[in-house]
Design brief:
This is Mce-associated membrane protein. By secondary structure, the chain is of the alpha+beta class. It is built from five helices and seven strands, in the order ααββαβααββββ. Strand 6 and strand 7 (about 250-265) form a beta hairpin.
């Protein structure tokens, strides 16, 4: 009778899966040292979406930076102190210039300049008029003084030429008076052999009308008379003379006198 062999169970005999039991438990792939586990497909998709979003964000940032470059650079504002970093203040937008305001400013400056020029011109003309009037007053003074001296000077030795000087120094009513009384004056001076000389002590122009050509002077005059016997008489008189402007200058048109005293020697 044949011997029945008892089956030997091998530990490495595969189970129902067909794989050895120990191998089934340890057959998972082992990660190599220094390598990372691979991500799932879903993780790869998320990474791609994130990268696309980052790219879009970077594009927007670059656009913003380009717009910022077009604007004026920020102005650095210095701090009051304390070691704080300076703050950056965005520059204010420039206001457009107002052309109307500019024109108004120019017109105002021009008006001020014209007013100053007009004032200066008026002042200059006023000074010129004052100067011219002063010069005219001096002319009246000099002419009146010489005419009054002439009309109070007469020498029996030169009576003819002296009477001619009287006529040349007179005009109007005074001229007529000299012409009418010329013969009588000559006769008296010749008979008495008198010599009269005049000297103006003081003269003032009391009135002067440039447009009318009239003036009045007040004069203090000293007249020295020497008769034929050599006797000298000094007379002090105060006279008022009216002067009229003629083509030959200022001449005496009227002469009045009032005695102020006399002295003899």
């Amino acid at each position: 009778m044949a011997e029945t062999e008892t089956p030997v169970v091998d530990e490495e005999t595969p189970d129902e899966t067909g794989l050895p039991r120990e191998q089934e438990e340890t057959d998972e792939p082992e990660a190599e040292p220094g390598s990372e586990p691979q991500a799932d497909a879903s993780d790869d998709d998320d990474a791609e979406v994130s990268d696309a979003a980052d790219a879009v964000g970077a594009s927007d940032e670059s656009d913003d930076e380009s717009e910022d470059e077009d604007e004026d650079p920020p102005v650095e504002v210095k701090g009051a102190g304390g070691g704080k970093p300076p703050a950056l203040e965005k520059p204010r937008p420039k206001r457009p210039r107002d052309p109307v305001r500019g024109v108004a400013l120019v017109l105002a400056c021009a008006a001020a300049a014209w007013a100053g020029f007009a004032s200066w011109s008026w002042y200059d003309r006023a000074n010129d008029e004052d100067l011219r009037f002063a010069e005219l007053r001096d002319q009246v003074r000099q002419s009146g003084e010489q005419a009054i001296v002439n009309l109070n000077t007469l020498d029996y030795r030169t009576v003819g030429p002296d009477l001619k000087v009287w006529r040349d120094s007179s005009t109007g009513a005074q001229y007529d008076h000299v012409v009418r009384g010329g013969a009588e004056f000559e006769q008296q001076v010749t008979e008495l052999k008198t010599v009269s000389k005049a000297k103006v002590l003081e003269l003032a122009v009391s009135e002067l009308d440039e447009h009318a050509g009239k003036a009045r002077v007040i004069v203090a005059i000293q007249i020295t008379v020497i008769d034929g016997e050599g006797k000298t008489v000094v007379k002090l008189r105060r006279q008022v003379a009216e002067l009229t402007r003629t083509s030959a200058g200022w001449k005496v048109s009227a002469l009045e006198e009032a005695p102020v005293g006399s002295s003899g020697s």
